[in-house]
Amino acid sequence: MIIRRLVKKNIRMIKPYQATELECRVKLDANESPYGFGEALAAAEGIETNRYPDPEAGELRKTLAGMWGVRESNILHGNGSDELIYYLVAVFGGPVMYPRPTFSMYGIIAGIMNEEAAGVPLGKGFQLNTGRMVKEIREKKPRLIFLSSPNNPTGNCFERDSIIKLIKAGKGIVVVDEAYQPFSSQQSFVKLIKEYPRLVVMRTLSKVGLAALRSGFIVAQKDIIDEVNKARLPFNVNSLSQAVAMQALGNRRKFQDFVNAVVEERHLLFDSLDRLEGVQPFPTDANFILFRVNNAEKVYKMLLARGVLVRNVSDAVKGCLRVTVGRPEENRIFVNELSKILKRV
Ligand code: PMP
After folding, report:
1. Distance 33 CA to ligand 1 centre (A)
2. Which atom of ligand 1 lies closest to the CA of 216?
3. Which numbered atom of ligand 1 lies nearest the CA of 211?
4. Does the C-beta of 216 come closer than 6 Å to ligand 1?
5. Could you read off the pLDDT of 62-112 as tens digits, one per residue?
6. Cβ density class 315-333: b for 16+ within 10 Å, e for less
7. Ligand 1: does its nearest atom lie under 6 Å from the Cβ of 81?
């Protein structure tokens, strides 16, 4: 174990993010869209493979700036939003605060960067425990707060007023991670960057049909973008991703149709789960549903044995699994298998 001894102490203690490929017939574990943009791959044809990509992802940022009603200088591109979390922690440092449970990468990246991380338990209905968070903000003075809204893995949006209270409570950067916002009834925080100079909104194309591209963004006032940009690796988003994303974004209608189809299916899936005895689905604003069952670990394994892959989040939320909304046929197979399993556990 000589190598392990060479590794920095904070890295030795890190439990890596679980992203394993498991054989399955129905893949509902990673909050991907069931619908892709295969035809946009044609845009890759014109690429000169010997040339580096546009380091600024200029066209892509310009298109998104138009969509979000901000300037290009308010947007920074990442190789997925994961990379931008890295940059944010590298640039602003810790303490890093977030509610718990939430997306695990905030804590993992804080750990990799050897920054203090503070997870504050969520309150009733998986809402922010605003009083407690304000208290902790005053005590710990976090330089960065991550709020995933809708939250992964609980699925709910945090109340708008609570988020604003937290922005006002401290002096650090508050990141509202809107990875699942397209599926939500809550308005985006993007418009508020003008009003709140320490607000960062994080977005991704991963949940709306372009996960393969690894393309995420932060939106914030220019001075924040310029600082975070210092940590960015020179050609972080490759030419293929930029070209295919541009092509796909040319068809805004299609994005909306896909999102609408997922939201519609989500309602049906929620009702099916709600009707099953022994299953408690939690209300969701995302493209996945958190649900509680007796013996989650066993149910997870039995689903997998039948070719249905969901996410076991029982470490984070007791007795719970998380299922991504798939195509109608996939959701039907999942509900069918689950109902058969429930009779046996
Ligand atoms: N934020 C949240 C809340 C997520 O759930 C995820 C993906 N699991 C990400 C960010 C990362 O997305 P990306 O693919 O853009 O890195």
Report:
1. 13
2. 15
3. 14
4. yes
5. 999 999 999 999 999 999 999 999 999 999 999 999 999 999 999 999 999
6. ebbeebbbbbbbbeebbeb
7. yes
Architecture label for domain 11-31+253-342: Alpha-Beta Complex (3.90)
81 Cα: distance to centroid of ligand 1 (angstroms): 6
User: Do 54-250 and 11-31+253-342 fall under one CATH topology?
Assistant: no
Using most ligand atoms within 8 A of CB, pick from 89, 102, 105, 148 the residue to mutate for ligand 1: 105
Atom of ligand 1 nearest to the CA of 148: 3
25-47 residues labelled b (16+ CB within 10 A) or e (exposed): ebbbbebbbbbebeebeebeeee
Q: Is 153 in the pocket of ligand 1 (CB under 6 A)?
A: no
Minimum CA distance residue for ligand 1 atom 6: 179
Asked whether the beta carbons of 157 and 183 are under 8 A apart, the reply is no
Distance CA 175, CA 88 (A): 9
Phi, psi of 278 (to 5 degrees): 85, 10
- The 10s digit of each residue's pLDDT in 304-335 is 999 999 999 999 999 999 999 999 999 999 99
Structure tokens at 131: 């009083």
Cβ-Cβ contacts under 8 Å for 21 (sequence gap 6 or more): none
Give the pLDDT confidence of 31-49 residue by residue, as tens digits: 999 999 999 999 999 899 9
Helix (H) or strand (E) holding 200, with range, is: strand 199-204
What average pLDDT does the segment 250-269 reach?
97
54-250: CATH topology: Aspartate Aminotransferase; domain 2 (3.40.640)
From the CB of 270, is ligand 1 less than 6 Å away? Answer: no
Ligand 1, closest atom to CA 103?
Answer: 3
Instruction: Tell me the two tokens of residue 343.
Output: 């009779």
- The full length of the chain comes to 345
Strands of 279-281's sheet in order across? 279-281, 288-293, 320-324, 311-312
Cβ of 82 closer than 6 Å to ligand 1, yes or no, is yes
Quote the CA–CA distance of 113 and 11 in Å, as a whole number.
9
Which atom in ligand 1 lies closest to the alpha carbon of residue 83?
A: 16
Q: Domain extents for the chain?
A: 11-31+253-342, 54-250
